[in-house]
Write a structure and sequence with these properties.
The structure holds 2 protein chains of 2 kinds.
Chain A lengths: L6 E7 L2 E8 L4 E5 L5 H7 L4 E6 L5 H14 L5 E6 L1 H12 L4 E7 L25 H7 L6 E6 L7 H8 L3 E6 L6 H4 L1 H14 L15
Parallel strand pairs in A: 3-4, 3-5, 5-6, 6-7, 7-8
Antiparallel strand pairs in A: 1-2, 2-4
Helix pairs in contact in A: 1-7, 2-3
Chain B lengths: L1 E5 L22 H20 L4 E4 L13 H9 L6 E8 L5 H14 L4 E6 L16 H17 L4 E4 L4 E5 L13 E4 L3 H9 L3 E5 L3 H17 L9 E9 L3 H11 L11 H9 L27 E3 L1 H15 L3 E5 L7 H23 L10
Chain lengths: 216, 374
Amino acid sequence: VPVDGFSTGRVDAAGVEVGYVESGSGEPVVVVAATGLDPLCARLARGRRVTAVALPDGTARDRARVLGAAAAALGLGSYPLVGAGAGASAALWHAIDAPAAVSTLVLLAPDALGRSTDPAGPPAPGPAGRPADAEIDAALAGCGVPTLVLFGDQDDRARHGRRYRAALPRGVFGIVYRAGRDLVTDRPAAVSEWVGDFLDRGPAFAVTTRSALLHQ
Amino acid sequence: VRFAVFNPWPVYGSGGAAGWPLAPRHALPDRVAESAARALDLAELADEVGFDYVTVAEHHYHGRQGSAAPIVAAAAISQRVRRAGIAVLGVALPLANPVRVAEELALLDALCGGRLLAGLFRGTPNEFLVYGTNPAQSREMYEEAVDLVLAAWTEPEPFGWLGRHYDFRTVAVWPRPVQRPHPPVVTAGNSPGSARYAAAHKLWLGVSFGSPEHAAALGRIYREAAAEAGWEPAPEQLLLRHFCLVADTDAAAGELVRTHQFGNMARRRPDPVLAAVAAAMNPPAPAPNGTTAAGAPAAGLLPTRPLFAGAPDTVTAQIRDFAAATGFGFFDLIFNDGNLPYAASRRSVELFGREVLPHLKAAAGTARGRRAAP
């Protein structure tokens, strides 16, 4: 996944060769690489060492294991982790399976949850998704990593956000106005600002730092 | 068919003072207190004689329309009426914190036993001067704020809102509205674009003043856009606001209209500041003082007399004809304006309730008490 200003590399992740791109310096952040995330990676690289890992095909949990092995091989220690779509599912499983490695988690329009009847409201329009996955539903309750989950208001899976919020003990759910599934493409600056702020401050990003002072 | 008494909440005795904003020195304490008492009295009367709703609206800085905090006014009314619903038509949404609006309206829905009709309006141009709202951004702010209010009422878990004009990291409204998924929502549809917006979002259409032809045209646009969006509005989801005066005879009603210029909103002086606000709106809007955005007179834009006036039989026929011509089934009627003697307004509400409303209800086959669906 080429990104302007990023260097490319490959790493042996427990026998699986994994490609990655990297830029910036400072505290690390790992991104599960996916199309459309370039503006976010560029924004995060202004103050961090960003490593975007391209995972091979496979189940979410298998990809999560490869992700963990790649990060370990790169010597990243404990790091914030960002994933979008299918990459968010891998990131979520990695946070569940290796909580010591993941300090903070950001899930952009994650597809980890399958179809579910939603007792709190009408079903989301459009595709209903995969059948429910009892394993992930049960695992969410055990994920203690501070997690920001974002969905676009135009995404037909947006109502999944409330399920993540209800199930994740330290989950925060945000609705991105005027955005579909590709959040970073639709609202690059705004999404990057929220993600960066969450990586900086975790759930305390709810405390505003915006000045109300208009005139001295 | 539904009927509401819209009380502009005038401060009696201040109506002769011209201009906007009106200097607060005109708001004499005894008049302010008396006007509040009259507003509550008129609401009780409307409830007693069978109106479906009592309406308040948000307007600022003038004695003609003294309910700048309409939810406060509505909360007071909610404790005085026994059967009628409460209509806040509406909140000027771009002026306010939308989450606060969602909270207050949800509480109001509880206070009135789930009989709230919620108007989420963009606001008239002069309102954008009140708290420094940018008129050019008011349409965008409004549309985003509507979505945020609806989300605040319906999301079952705490959420954040990453908007274009609003950024909230934590939203979790308590209480949720009594009505589920939320109270019916009316939006002002005085232009083709806003009528289409209301239909696309499955909101009720509210039209203020204008001719029957104007209302009919907007109603057509609204129904066509609703059909495109896959739904069909009921007549009661098309609301007209206009002045109404019922007296014992046609002659008596005519005399009251003439003497007190009741329902004449086109006699305000042009104001270049208000015209500038209207011109800055996107798209430019007619100024609220009877001028166009360029400051020229806008003949026919604002009413010069009540659309419905006369003896009970006359008004019955006028409303029946209007409904047949336009397909509108909700009448939000103004019986007082601060100029008309209060006793005449009271008599007008009473006559309407006792001698007009039952005939129109019977003809339409509707009775009060049927809860409107959002």
